[in-house]
Design a protein that fits this description.
mainly alpha; 204 residues; Tet_transcr_reg_TetR-rel_C_sf
């Protein structure tokens, strides 16, 4: 049986949910911490106790969305399984997240908020990079097992993510195209794996 959330954890969750609604409805610049506090039913001081700034709160929301989806996949490297099998699971998860309207809406807000203030993006990117470290470690483990070429894990990971986002992120963000349907998702995954593994897999 799952233990009930502590009061402080319930307040934190209420703040996150209120902020998601506010950012999606009004954007980053217009949304104030006062408005988030009122929507969450907590004091402004409570909001700042959990999140020192609006930028930190927004970064936590993006992290929160990814973490809730990433919890469904095992990012441990398994030497008894092929790289393709393991990566297919990861990319399927990634495309599932990129197809969620909440994630896409907030990504638009994040991009709009940072275009005119690039320094604002630094904290957001740093927080999101923490989540990607699990995949970097997966690559390092595959390299140690002799199945992945000796390249910079972060560089290789960025390439793979870029292959996905060419079809399943930027067209939706910048052109308003709909999320990919399942057959197109499968095609993007398999073609991305073909390119990625052709460059980096070591076949024993």
């Amino acid at each position: 049986m799952t233990a009930p959330l502590r009061l402080t954890d319930r307040k934190r969750e209420a703040i996150i949910q209120a902020a998601i609604e506010a950012f999606r409805a009004d954007g980053f610049e217009v949304t104030s911490m006062d408005k988030i506090a009122a929507k969450a039913g907590v004091s402004k001081r409570t909001v700042y106790n959990h999140f020192p700034s609006k930028e930190e709160l927004f970064a936590e929301i993006m992290h929160h969305l990814w973490a809730s989806s990433a919890a469904q996949v095992d990012m441990s490297y398994h030497p008894d399984r092929t790289l393709r099998e393991q990566l297919r699971e990861l990319l399927t998860l990634k495309l599932r997240l990129l197809s969620e309207s909440s994630f896409l809406d907030l990504a638009r807000v994040a991009i709009a908020a940072t275009i005119h203030a690039p320094e604002r993006a630094q904290g957001m990117v740093a927080r999101l990079a923490e989540r990607e470290e699990a995949f970097n470690q997966w690559i390092r483990d595959a390299q140690a097992d002799g199945t992945f070429k000796p390249v910079d894990p972060a560089f290789a990971a960025a390439q793979l993510h870029g292959l996905l986002k060419t079809f399943a992120f930027w067209p939706q963000i910048s052109l308003g195209q709909p999320p990919l349907d399942p057959p197109t998702q499968a095609r993007v995954i398999e073609s991305s794996l073909d390119l990625f593994l052709a460059g980096y897999e070591i076949v024993k």
